[in-house]
Amino acid sequence: MSATPHVFISASEIQKRIQELGAQIDADYAGSGPIYLIAILKGACIFMSDLARAMKTPARLEFMGISSYGKGKTSSGQVKVTKDLDVSIEGFDVIIVEDIVDSGVTLSYLMQLLEQRKPKSLRIATLLDKPERRMRPVEVAYCGFKIPDEFVVGYGLDYAEDYRNLGDVCILG
Ligand code: IMP
Ligand code: MG
After folding, report:
1. Is 54 close to ligand 1, i.e. is its CB under 6 Å away?
2. What is the pTM of this model?
3. pLDDT per residue over 73-85, tens digit each?
4. Ligand 1 in contact with 99 (CB < 6 A)?
5. Is 102 annotated in the active site?
């Protein structure tokens, strides 16, 4: 691998923003809970673990696996559930936690799928959003950072499974 990661959003900026998102979620869900946080594997795990601790509202942590991308940087355009929930979300507040919304294909599919399971409410939290790339409309309730159309890695995001454990969000240059 020849590319060098350059810091685009630093670990401290990320942590500061996540504290704000946690406070926003607490304000929106005041007096309710537990909220099901559903992280989309694998990229969103790191964001979910920090977001869950930035909020005071009781949360339950769940995971779903969705494949929409191959091993490279381009979308296959296909969405498949590779790991489903093993709990019922009926009647619960649910927040889908994603690392990045790009084309919106993954999340528009997932919103439709989870709506059918009758949650009390269903929202999306994403660390990053690339609005320029949107092909399907997706309503994002909690967004860390809107970014331009650059391929980023780190803080959970990978390129061919590498770079997920960088603390900063980086651009490969
Ligand atoms: P979407 O269905 O096109 O919105 O795809 C979202 C998924 O694509 C994310 O969960 C990531 O796994 C992947 N992805 C999109 N953009 C990037 C990027 O810049 N870096 C790493 N992964 C990305
Ligand atoms: Mg992902």
Report:
1. no
2. 0.94
3. 555 567 889 999 9
4. yes
5. yes
